Give the backbone structure.
Amino acid sequence: MELKAYNAGRAKNRKLLVRVVQNRQLYILLFPTLLFYLVYCYLPMFGNIMAFQDYNLAQGITGSEWVGFEHFKDFLTDSYFWRLIRNTLSINILGLIFSFSAPIILALLLNEIKCETYKKSVQVITYMPHFISMVVIAAMVLDFVSADGIINDIRELFGLEKVMFMTNPDNFYPIYIISDIWQTVGWGSIIYIAALSGLDQQLYEAATTDGAGRFQKLWHITIPGILPTIMILLILRIGQMLDVGFEKVMLLYNETIYEKADVISTYVYRRGIKDMEYSYSTAVGLFNSVFNFLLLVFANQLSRKLTDSSLW
Amino acid sequence: MAADIRKGGFMKLKVCLCALLAAIAISAAGCSESETSEGTTSTSGGEFPAEIEIFAPFSSAIAQFGDDYNAVYGFQLLEEKTGCKINWIHPASANDATEEQFSLMISSGELPDAIVYPWPTVSGGAQKYVDNGFIIDLTDKMEANMPNLMSFLNERPDIKKDCVTDEGKFLYLPYIRKDDELKVYLGPQIRTDWLDKLGIKAPETTDELYDVLVKFKNEDPNGNGEADEIPMIAASFTDTNFGIGNLLWPFGIHYDFYVEDGKVKHGIMEPEFEEGMEYIIRLYSEGLIDQDYILMDRTKMEAKMTSDQAGFMYGFQPTKIMGMMEGKDDQFSLQGIKHLAGPTGERKSFEPNYGSNVFDTVCLAITKENKDPEATLRWMDYIYSEEGTMIMNYGKEGVTYNMVDGEPILTDLLLNNPDGLDKTAAFNRYIAAFPSNFPMFQEWGYYEQFLSDAGKAAVKTWMSDVDISGIMPKVSLTSDEQKIVTKDMAQINTLVEETYNKLVIGSESLDNIDAIRNELNNMGMQEVLKAYQAAYDRYQAR
């Protein structure tokens, strides 16, 4: 029995080897890509060892002192830990609801437009902001909402009082999300528009013959057609739940709205980067990655159960 | 001419003879020495190194003239004089890149001959880099190779304190502001033309400032018929240059760590805090401080100042702003005023720059890769010599300066550049001391010529009659202390900065201050104070 299994295994291995040799050109073509992932994505993972050390540059990974989970304990017992988690998740969940759905809606709307020129110009106008640097976007946003900015000027026109937008923590999320939508909606919709153009036109014709209205076609053909795309992007997005656009928060927030705006990355930046606290930053990064990974797996399972489309 | 020869002829001949004799004597001594002990002369090498490789942060202001500091005229002169060619290694100009490049360089182990870096404040202390074998201890080489620097430091023990470690060791060579004026470039300033228009005098106390700001707000000093004046502009509370927190100084406290009677304190923990804070809250709530202050930075503040809207601020001496207004509005006058006196009548300033003559971000350490550290030290000492100081600060006589009544006066190449460079660019191009990125002595004499009259006056005003005894010196923490401080200060600073600004805008109440202090103590404020106290005591014992 055992010998048989062994032989079978060997035969299988041989078969694989033969196949590899037969298709060597394909494997050679694949090799650079594999190497890229190995060198730039997998090897650096060993750097995570730092999180359990008191890393210093001089002694390197092999020589630094081991401290176990001290850096994780440090982060988890920080007075601001829960506030940071809450803010980070809030921004991401709001982003998931609004910033994620906006491009889908835009794509669906564009899909209904029959005039090509109009459609193209709307597309161009909406994806232009994607090319503006984040620093410029943040400066523009801050300028708009300042005491003598355009929004307050408009309010004044209607006889309303000036509002200090950036010192009220409650305003931070709307400002963040609205500017996010403005910047990313056009670019984000491209992938959906591509998915939409791949839908079988015969389905629509058939539906029209059956007397389906616009909304019925939207509901029964268009949305199911792009659902796999939506689900994949959604799963990927959920896998970044503890990451947040660091630069944007950094550029927009100020001390008076830390309450709502301070997120993990900005806090770690203020704490560690300047003092070269590699270990601490790595520990927080590792914590985020593990958490994100668990969410990703969970979202994938859920999606597979509910919609039959999943990453793996 | 004839009279000259008759008078000086004999003297000249004598001097020549003396020099000749001396030269013969020296060469003879040299010969006999090299005959007796061949080894000693060859090991010491040349007086200066022939070539040196130096890592140094790059100033983006130089980028328009070349790829490295050899584009600066002062460094070209230095090479000409010493025959030592400098190979610069510059990180990309962004500030973050310097740290990154430094880390990479250290971890790769490929070191240049010398490294310019903020050694006094480097994480873990410079001693750690000596212990790990990256840079070398210079202490026992200083007296023999650096007579110029050492004689200066021995005369100025206060400056020496900032150049050595707690153990009294020399690990790096500093950039020293030789004259006290050079430390003072930040302070309170006011629109004196507005004062004149309203017929009031410059404020000297906090109460007078309040009255002046109220008048600025209500009496239309810019004369456009609208109440668009912002009496005081400022930036976020703890902004080191423009922060509102500077208004705490007249009350005898600082918004950060400071020293009183040898004890390290933090402003928010002290009883004077409530009084000072109430004053600031009153100014803000009555609209005397820019309601948008939290969003301000230097550019935005300069825009408000030059658009004839703002009346008072803390900031850099007014040379730049006055320059921007030149030809636009001749009435415009922004002048420095004395630091304000508070309820006790003391004029205190906690501006960190006032505290130290050593510019701690620019210090040079010699690495273990350096083949001849003594020669490098001798070369550096040339920079600290009188001749070297002239080169670094003034350049070359007849080109960048002329001696007028015994004073070096800069030429039009700098003050009125024929190639159309503005003053700042011209100074960056020619004067090595100006971008402040290499250890040397900086002198007030040349910098004074850069400043406008308003700038010079402001510096003199801020210097006079100010109490700077409370400024926290640049202490160095042991690695244990460093651990406590980095661990706790992120939380503490978050709460402190949040509290300050929320108090100003009114979303936090001063009634809760005791609860906040308790919270700060829970976060480890007392331990951090203890760590700084210990570091301060060691500093004083240097």
